[in-house]
Amino acid sequence: MRHLVGQSRQQVSLLPESLDDFVTADAPVRVIDAFVDTLDVEALGFDKAVPKDTGRKPYHPGDLLKLYVYGYLNRVSTSRRLERECQRNVEVMWLLGRLAPDFKTIADFRKDNPQAIRGACRAFIEFCRETQLLAGKLVAIDGSKLQAAASLEPTLTRKILERDRVELEQQVARYLEQLDRADQGEGSEPLERERVQGALERLARQRERLDRVEREMDACGREEYCEVEPEARLMRGPQGTTVGYNVQSAVDAETRLIVHHEVSNEQGDTRLLWPVARGAQAALGVERLEVLADGGYANGEHLEACDQAGITATVPRRVIPGSRAGLYQKCDFDYDAERDLYRCPAGEELHHAGVDRHRKLHLYRRKGCDQCPLQARCTPGNTRMVTRHFFEAAYARSEARLEADPRLMSRRMSIAERPFAVLKQVLAFKRFSCRGLKGAGTEMAIAVLGYNLLQMIQRLGAPRLIALMG
């Protein structure tokens, strides 16, 4: 039969092929190599950037950074798997010059250089900005819940604590009852006193554990606590509730690069608009920036802070559930700024009646609505109240921009949601391997750097990108 036959494994080549011949000119690994070589690892603060004169020679931090970026770009993120890739992957052999660090060295590099790795991620954005590949006029903000290294099993809530306490006390009562019967000489069989005493000691340790967890909850003001990863929190996502972190990204509208990212343990997005928008503005180095975000980021105080910093943030106001259908809504009332009052559809005035500082609301009230001919369309009671946020003007400016261009939210979706789809589906980055906010932030920086490199390779091609780096 006529088939292509490979070369014999025992064949000795008199002129060995160069390792460089196995890596194509447009391979992404060449871009990784070129970019990391442009970094000043000492200025970024990498450990062992300047080796000591004595002792064993360390690996260059640039080589280990190349290994990690290549790994995350190719769905290999654990140190043990990266160790294996060094011994069998031709591209990795080319990238590291046949160096083969062990898994402990690889893992320690990621653990010991969190800030430097994040600096390397920012350096690529600076490179794109300096080479005028990144305009940075409009960014879209979005968040996604990523699972932490810990699982749900060691996570306790107040409800679970109470349930476990009840079960524990019931077990203790049963064992104490057995001891009482033994002391009274009851029972046909001899009691294994040592076994019962051991069980009581075990239950006492469990009680101490529950007390410790409850104290931790009280100290941090939370309703849940993960023993093995205290900074992780219960997050609700499309796949259900999990223990994880809230990853934020600010994506450039033109290039789809993630210009800024943050890893937070905030369970919602309400308090994240200003820090993420400010981080994106600093990363882009611009004085004026347009930002799009969904209704989960609606926060009047943050909108006001953005306006004052030169950031034009467009965020739809969240719809408050429970409003009575068919009745007049707040938009049907006219606000008189000079007199600080609202005027209802019937022409009656609602005067300032107090302040809710917790929710940052001014309260406006009118009594005597039972005499109004429009009561049936306004309120079932005798009093109608309207609230006004402390930063209502900032909300109004945002809503006006959205009314002027209703397509902005559709545009936000197309800009901000694609990077997370690529990270999760293409790069298979769905769960953190490192514990804690610092470890998760380091991993996210490597993943974002890999995504950004891939995005620019697809836009420009590897040869042109390497030429710009040179």
Structure description:
With 470 residues, the protein is of the alpha+beta class. The chain has four domains: 19-112, no CATH class; 139-148 and 245-318 and 397-435, Nucleotidyltransferase, domain 5 (2-Layer Sandwich); 155-226; 330-394, no CATH class. Helix content is 45%, strand content 16%. The protein has helices at 28-38, 41-44, 61-73, 79-88, 90-96, 103-112, 114-130, 158-183, 193-220, 273-284, 300-308, 392-404, 408-426, 436-460, 462-469, and strands spanning 138-147, 155-157, 224-226, 233-237, 240-252, 258-264, 289-292, 311-314, 334-336, 341-343, 349-356, 361-367, 383-389. Strands 1, 4, 5, 6, 7 and 8 form a six-stranded mixed β-sheet that branches. Helix 1 runs antiparallel to helix 3, helix 7 (114-130) runs parallel beside helix 14 and helix 8 runs antiparallel to helix 9. The longest helix has 28 residues, at 193-220. The radius of gyration is 31 Å and the shape is flat. The model has no long low-confidence stretch (mean pLDDT 89).
Quickly list its features.
single chain, 470 residues, alpha+beta, Nucleotidyltransferase, domain 5, five-stranded antiparallel sheet, 15 helices, 16% strand, flat
Give the overall average pLDDT: 89
Tell me the span between the first and last alpha carbons: 51 Å
What gyration radius follows from the Cα positions, in whole Å? 31 Å
- CATH superfamily membership of the largest domain: Ribonuclease H-like superfamily/Ribonuclease H
Overall SS class: alpha+beta
